[in-house]
Specification:
By secondary structure, the chain is α/β, with parallel strands linked by helices. The protein has 10 helices and 8 strands. It folds into 2 domains: about 220 residues, Spore Coat Polysaccharide Biosynthesis Protein SpsA, Chain A (Alpha-Beta Complex); about 70 residues. The radius of gyration is 25 Å and the shape is elongated. The structure holds uridine-5'-diphosphate and magnesium ion.
Length: about 325
């Protein structure tokens, strides 16, 4: 029988985990009995609560449960990578621990991958119900901007929840970059992906780990990782300003020749200086973003550090 690996990244999910496990097992028994084997890989991303203990207890009662526990919090991207690298299944799915990625969709995804010509089935939320409106607004804006800037297509509302064939997983794992932006990586590796749409589900327990600021930084990450358009834009603005300056110089020379040179224009000069230095700092900031990402890549630090796994016990 074929095996499906379920990778679950967990950070402070003590409340949600038992509910997740119960629902996942229910779906497995109902939809996958005699169809596929399962393995659950819980990645404990440096939780500060009882998450690891709960996972260990699950392991005691269920051989299918495996876990990887990080030495500290490395972020969801690192957790997903660790799970993918350690998954042994013919198919791998990524899920959140809070049941926002309904396990009940899994059978449908599996059937699509088995019967149709797709290598991966992704999910996408068509509504953002239950989310603060300001967050939805910025999310929409982000997708508009990044899709204009990047040749890689980012699907609005796409979740990390997806089922992939082994070769897709292998190709994602082969991308060793340090600044990981999964939505981009999934689309970068290509393959045929079918999108399943579903209504947003609110998390069952616990609370979201994504503050607005964290999401904003993640968005910048996405843009710098998959587009160099901001660099081109700052060059273009530079050229535009040179042109304007050139025209202004000619204008001033002619004006001085005709009308003489009474001292005037200090306030406008001050404005121009502030404006132009603003643009300069902004451009340096953009270059700085890319440089800092390059710096982190070049250091070649591990993306995560494992403290223990189920094999240690
Ligand atoms: N998560 C993680 N490491 C982190 C933050 C989050 O592994 O540093 C996990 C978290 O436990 C959950 C998933 O990523 O399973 C999604 O997080 P969350 O539900 O907080 O995000 P949201 O659904 O609100 O976007
Ligand atoms: Mg969630």
């Amino acid at each position: 029988m074929e095996k499906i690996s379920v990778v679950i990244s967990c950070y402070n999910e003590e409340k949600a985990l038992p509910l997740f496990y119960e629902e996942m097992e229910r779906v497995r028994k109902q939809d996958f009995e005699n169809i596929a084997d399962f393995e659950y890989i819980f990645v404990n991303d440096g939780s500060k609560d009882n998450t690891l203990q709960i996972i260990k207890d699950l392991r005691k009662q269920d051989e299918k449960v495996r876990y990887i526990s990080f030495s500290r919090n490395f972020g969801k991207e690192a957790a997903m990578l660790a799970g993918l690298e350690n998954a042994t299944g013919d198919y791998v799915t990524l899920m959140d621990a809070d049941l926002q990625d309904p396990p009940s969709l899994l059978r449908k995804m599996f059937d699509i991958i088995k019967t149709e010509d797709y290598d991966a089935v992704g999910t996408r939320r068509v509504t953002r119900k239950g989310e603060p409106p300001i967050r939805s607004l910025f999310a929409r804006m982000f997708y508009k901007i990044i899709n204009k800037m990047s040749s890689i297509e980012m699907v609005d509302g796409a979740r990390d929840y997806r089922l992939m064939k082994r070769k897709v997983v292998d190709s994602i794992v082969s991308l060793k970059e340090y600044n990981r932006y999964s939505k981009g990586l999934f689309s970068f590796v290509g393959f045929n992906t079918k999108w399943l749409e579903y209504e947003n589900v609110e998390r069952v327990a616990g609370e979201t780990k994504w503050s607005f600021w964290k999401l904003f930084r993640y968005a910048i990450e996405g843009i710098t990782a998959f587009s160099t358009t901001p660099l081109i834009m700052s060059s273009l603005i530079g050229i535009l300003f040179c042109l304007i300056a050139f025209i202004a110089i000619i204008f001033i020379i002619i004006k001085t020749l005709i009308f003489g040179d009474p001292t005037s224009g200090w306030p406008s000069l001050a404005c121009i200086i502030v404006f132009v230095s603003g643009i300069q700092l902004f451009s340096i900031g953009i270059i700085g973003q890319y440089l800092s990402k390059t710096y982190l890549e070049v250091k070649n630090r591990p993306i995560y550090i494992v403290k223990e796994t189920e094999k240690d016990n």
